# Entry
Amino acid sequence: MSCDSLHVVIHIDGGSRGNPGPAGAGVAIRDKSDNSILYKGGVFLGNATNNVAEYSGLLTGLSAAKELKAASVELFSDSQLLVRQMTGEYRVKNAGLKPLHRRATELADSFENCTFHHIPREENTAADKLANMAMDAKTNILDAADDPYAQD
# Structure
């Protein structure tokens, strides 16, 4: 990896109010070298399950990192299921999650390096806040980096 390769840290979260119910996903991306915010956004999903919302956050985060031309990704989620499925520790049994997992794996494999880490909910507040903002607004909150309410 060259010295000028972008290394990003992504925090993702997804949630639904009811399972299924109104759902949203949140993504916060920082530059690992200086911790600057590169992207923050929330996605309103309509009616979905919690796990679909988590995968939607993952796909949004990886797609945004691709657009930022990141070479290396460290991804953090409070969804143990998603992290263990992405690391191959768990198989994806749910038919609805299989295409999402397949797409996420393709995106993850397109980076020079992509790692997945499970973290406690309390360490994922920025992404959680963005997911809730999208659910509350019932619309996408795109690139909320300048939104004072979206700060950690």
Summary: The longest strand covers residues 37-48. The helical segments are 50-67, 80-86, 98-109, 125-137. The chain is about 35% helix and 30% strand.
